[in-house]
Amino acid sequence: MSPVAAHRASPAMWSPQPPPPCLQLRRLPPTLPPSSRRGRSLIRIAASQEDPLTALTRVLWGRALPPSQLVLAVRHGWTSAWRLLMRQLAPSDPATGAFTRTPSRFPAVAQPAPGPGARLHLYVGLPCPWAHRALLVRALLGLGPRLPVSVAVPGDDGAWSFTPESPDALYGKRRLRDVYAARRGGFEGRASVPMLWDADRREVVCNESIEIAKFLCTLADDTTNALDLWPPEHRQEIDRWYGVIYPSVNNGVYRCGFAQSQAAYDAAAGELFAALDMLEGHLSGSRYLCAGAGAGVTLADVCLFTTLIRFDLVYNPLFRCSRRKLVEYPSLHAYMREIYQLPGAAETCDMAAIADGYFGTLFPLNPGGILPIVPASCSREALMEPHGREALPSAAAADGRQLGATASVVG
């Protein structure tokens, strides 16, 4: 018998007795080396089929963490993580908690502006309402043959990326940031969509949606489409409407969804629905937003539409814009359907991509990542129902007074 075996088998060998139960309960656990039972359990967490948090909970507390401790721990941890995420992803005013949008890195069209023969390329993302503006203008003006487009998708890290199914058709880059970085001056900042790129100069033309939309209107001519979305005689009125719908509706839904205080949310929601109530009244007597003589569909309508088409699907449930659904506004919903039914418009609206882009990517607002069923009012069949707005005048009889009243309601 080996000395070690003999030592273990010796009947005279003394071993300490365990302490009485009362002392066992009070004794503090010693620091355990990795070779101990507890240490080995901690090491096995890495190889466990369970997620690390569940495995660690099992080691420390057994099969389940007491419910009260679970709720308190998760509430504190999640709230802290949520505030950190929101500060990074959706900056807010520290004093009020109100969402503040980060300005575009290239807010104006680069000068000199690209000429008629420039090789331009448009980068968009289908979930994004700002990118949808540029994509919709491109479709309505028939610019598709002259303006190629690449569609980026939200990556797991939240950045815009390309996939084999949706590639960068110009350079074959993996990420939109890589395209930005290809500009001659380099790039630092947020790689956002939409982005208009000049391939000849290897330069960003612009990444501010309303300015891209206006620039695309200058590319249209008689050979593309009869629509004039930015007619000179209505530009002041378009800008006035934009000054109302951008802060209250376009950005208003984000101010609701990304508010970091109750007061900030209440203010944003009140302004949003005051604007929607006003728009419902205006559009009950006018076919489109602009009220000037001979006005038709304009950029103001494009900018309003890209928010309305997402309202019942995304902003009502996810961003807590919950006082009313858009389908509860008869004139607004019919107006949205009319824009949707314009030639080429429906093809720019991918409801599945919109739902996935918001519910699947904005995990601070939807941490489970569960995608909702598309509401019946957002189905293609519902959106193609007759809108019945043909009888309405293209110009309201209010000769601009309605717009003046609007500013006082939502300002």
TrEMBL record:
GO annotations of cellular component type: cytoplasm
Chain residue ranges for the region called Disordered: 1-20
GO terms for MF: glutathione transferase activity
InterPro entries: Glutathione-S-Trfase_C-like, Glutathione-S-Trfase_C_sf, Glutathione_S-Trfase, Glutathione_S-Trfase_N, GST_Omega-like_C, GST_Omega/GSH, Thioredoxin-like_sf
Domain GST C-terminal: 231-359
One Pfam family, short name: GST_C_2
Highest taxon listed in the record's lineage: Eukaryota
PANTHER family, alphabetized: GLUTATHIONYL-HYDROQUINONE REDUCTASE, OS02G0814800 PROTEIN
Protein name per its UniProtKB record: Predicted protein
Species assigned in the record: Hordeum vulgare subsp. vulgare (Domesticated barley)
